[in-house]
Every structure is written in structure tokens, then in C-alpha cells.
């Protein structure tokens, strides 16, 4: 093993607790999505109806909307309109959060014998509002993570039930390319991440590396932070190392991962459950049964995403911001293809799609 490889493994070992915590949130978010998926597996819940599940033009529209949203948020941040950013983002988060909470209020109220259309909706609305208020009043890392996990599960379900796996894979490939460009080339994704950290919004997950870490005290300038320029004539390895450590100092207390890094692999998991053939034994679910073949492909996709996550952490451990989607999406796609071929057969891996 090379000296560099040993160094990377050593850095990963030093941060294993935060990395394991982040992996746990990755699994829990997708797991909740799998659990509530059957409740929303109806034509009325699909973003573009049953007809839109195979239309690639809607995927391109989704990608365009992501780009417009990113540019708008960065522009508002540069204009100092943080309150407007918070309002827009919190409204979007509340809608996704409601869809994730509603199945649980339905289940609980059904068990205790008080489930009606109005009691379920009103309870979900009340919990959603309380969660947003808690986020505004006390945005500590565990509050941000709790809301973020539920928001993420709601988003992956709503998107996953709306598009067949073929379209989701196209979406993931395009998003991975965009993510790489936005982090390494234009770097505007780093600016967006700093804005969201500064505003304490749950569009990212936070895994503390040290006890006593407080997200409330976290400054929102860690992603773009760069070391100061060197005095002329002092370009030595020792000074370079000092500069490198200075650039990492602000972000060393916590590991951050954008919610989109969970959502994209997760929506392929949900799409597989929704659109692959109903083969094998029925697995009981309080909202509707899931077939064994679908569940196996979903698990295979999740495992592929986790393998991509481990590879991603090898880069993150070195202290540099990394685009998560190329590795996470790539792992999830490979996991889906392999598990689908083995479980439902190669003829069912990809579905016919149209542009309109």
C-alpha cells in the first residue's frame, strides 16, 4: 500500500464516527421513503400523472428548474436578501415535510382509532408548522438533521413515483455532470452551500466530528474558504502545508453533505419499487404491499449508493469540498443495474421512454 493510501485511510479512521453518522442518515432517509412509498403510489400523486412517467422532457424541465433555483438563491444572497431566501426555501421544505409526516400521522391516528381525513391532515400540518418553527428558533445540528431527513424522504418519494428508472438514471447522470462542473469549475455550488449553512437551513446534513460541536456557531464561509496569499519568496513545502491546514481549520468540526446527495440515489430506489414488475413474495407494509423483487433491487441500489459514499469519503477526508453526485449516483446506478438484471431480468432493467 502506498504512503498516500495509508494517509487517506488514516484520515478516514480519524473521522469514522462522523462518516458513519452521515451514512446512517443516508440510509434512514431512503428507508423512510421505502416505508411510505406505497401510500403515494397512485396516479394523483405523480408530478405529471401516469402519462408523464416516461416523458424525458419533464426530466429536462426538472434539471432546468434546479439551475434556475440555484442562480436565483445565489443572486438573492449577493443582494443581501437572506430573509427572502429563507421564506422561499422554508415553503418548499414545508411542502415536502408535510408529505413525509402525513403517512405517520395516518398510521398513529388509525391505531388509536381517531383517523379521519381531517384529523390526519390537520395533525400533519400542525407537526410541519411546529418543525419549521423549531428550525427557525433553534437550528442546532440535530434539529436541522431531523427536519432534513424527513424532507429528503418526502422528496425522493414524490420524484421517485413520478418517473420510471430509465428517466431517473438520465436525470442522475445529467445532475452528476452539473454537480461536478458547479463544484470544480464555476464553484457556484460552494457559494450556495455556504449560504445555506449561514442561514441554518436543512438542505444539507451535518455530522459533528467532535463532542460539543454547535451548528448555531458555525459560520457560513467554510466551503469557499481559501488560504491567504504567500509572501513573495516563501513558496516552501512547510508553508504550503501550513496554508493547507489553515484552509481546513474552519470546517474540521463537522462533515456536511447536501440533501441532494441523498435525494438522487434515493429517488432511483423509489422508482425501482414503483415501476419494476410485481414479482416474488409480497412484503407486508401498512400502506400497501411491496414485492420481494422490487425490494431486492431497491436494496441493491442503496448498497451501490453506499459504496459510492465510501469512495466519496476517501476524498472528503482529505479536507477538500467534493461533488457528491458523480460517485453517489454512479454507485446507485450500477447497484440498480446489477441487482435488476439478477432479480427481474435484463429485459426489465430499462423502460421505453419518449420525449413528449
Shape: globular
What number of domains?
A: 1
Query: Over the alpha carbons, how many angstroms does the gyration radius reach?
Result: 21 Å
Number of strands: 4
What string gives the helices and strands in order? HHHHHHHHEHEHEEHH
Give the termini separation: 52 Å
Summed up, the helix count is 12
- What portion of the residues fall into strands of 2 or more residues? under 5%
Q: Spatial order of the strands in the main sheet?
A: 1-2
Secondary structure topology:
Blueprint: H1 3-14, H2 16-40, H3 56-78, H4 82-112, H5 117-137, H6 141-160, H7 165-185, H8 188-199, E1 204-208, H9 237-249, E2 254-258, H10 260-275, E3 282-283, E4 290-291, H11 292-316, H12 325-343
Helix pairs in contact: 2-6, 2-10, 2-11, 3-7, 3-8, 4-5, 4-6, 6-10, 7-10, 7-12, 10-11, 10-12, 11-12
Describe the 3D structure:
By secondary structure, this protein is mainly alpha-helical. It has one domain. Helices cover 67% and strands 4% of the residues. It is built from 12 helices and 4 strands, in the order ααααααααβαβαββαα. The strands form 2 sheets. It has a two-stranded antiparallel sheet. Strands 3-4 form a two-stranded antiparallel ribbon. Strand 3 (282-283) and strand 4 (290-291) form a beta hairpin. Helix 2 (16-40) packs across helix 6 and helix 10 (260-275) packs parallel to helix 12 (325-343). The longest helix has 31 residues, at 82-112. The chain is globular, with a radius of gyration of 21 Å. The N and C termini lie far apart (52 Å).
Amino acid at each position: 500500500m502506498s504512503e498516500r493510501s495509508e494517509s487517506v485511510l488514516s484520515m478516514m479512521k480519524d473521522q469514522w464516527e462522523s462518516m458513519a453518522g452521515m451514512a446512517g442518515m443516508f440510509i434512514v432517509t431512503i428507508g423512510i421513503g421505502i416505508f411510505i412509498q406505497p401510500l403515494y403510489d397512485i396516479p394523483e400523486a405523480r408530478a405529471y400523472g401516469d402519462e408523464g412517467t416516461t416523458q424525458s422532457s419533464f426530466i429536462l424541465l426538472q434539471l432546468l428548474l434546479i439551475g434556475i433555483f440555484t442562480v436565483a438563491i445565489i443572486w438573492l444572497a449577493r443582494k443581501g436578501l437572506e430573509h427572502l431566501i429563507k421564506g422561499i426555501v422554508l415553503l418548499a421544505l414545508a411542502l415536502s415535510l408535510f408529505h413525509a409526516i402525513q403517512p405517520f400521522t395516518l398510521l398513529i391516528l388509525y391505531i388509536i382509532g381517531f383517523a379521519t381525513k381531517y384529523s390526519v391532515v390537520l395533525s400533519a400540518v400542525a407537526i410541519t408548522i411546529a418543525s419549521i418553527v423549531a428550525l427557525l428558533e433553534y437550528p442546532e445540528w440535530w434539529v436541522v438533521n431531523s427536519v432534513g431527513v424527513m424532507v429528503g424522504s418526502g422528496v425522493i418519494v414524490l420524484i421517485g413515483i413520478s418517473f420510471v428508472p430509465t428517466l431517473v438514471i438520465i436525470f442522475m447522470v445529467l445532475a452528476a455532470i452539473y454537480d461536478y462542473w458547479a463544484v470544480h469549475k464555476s464553484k457556484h455550488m460552494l457559494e450556495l452551500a455556504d449560504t445555506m449553512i449561514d442561514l441554518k437551513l436543512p438542505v444539507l446534513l451535518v455530522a459533528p466530528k467532535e463532542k460539543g460541536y454547535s451548528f448555531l456557531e458555525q459560520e457560513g464561509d467554510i466551503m469557499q474558504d481559501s488560504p491567504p496569499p504567500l509572501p513573495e519568496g516563501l513558496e516552501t513545502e512547510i508553508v504550503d502545508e501550513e496554508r493547507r491546514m489553515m484552509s481546513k481549520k474552519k470546517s474540521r468540526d463537522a462533515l456536511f453533505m447536501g440533501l441532494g446527495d441523498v435525494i438522487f440515489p434515493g429517488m432511483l430506489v423509489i422508482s425501482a419499487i414503483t415501476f419494476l414488475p410485481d414479482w416474488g413474495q409480497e412484503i407486508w407494509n401498512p400502506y400497501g404491499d411491496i414485492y420481494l423483487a422490487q425490494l431486492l433491487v431497491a436494496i441493491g441500489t442503496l448498497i451501490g449508493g453506499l459504496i459510492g459514499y465510501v469512495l466519496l469519503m476517501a476524498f472528503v477526508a482529505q479536507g477538500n469540498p467534493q461533488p457528491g453526485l458523480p460517485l453517489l449516483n454512479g454507485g446507485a446506478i450500477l447497484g440498480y443495474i446489477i441487482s435488476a438484471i439478477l432479480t427481474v431480468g435484463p429485459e426489465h432493467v430499462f423502460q421505453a421512454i419518449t420525449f413528449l
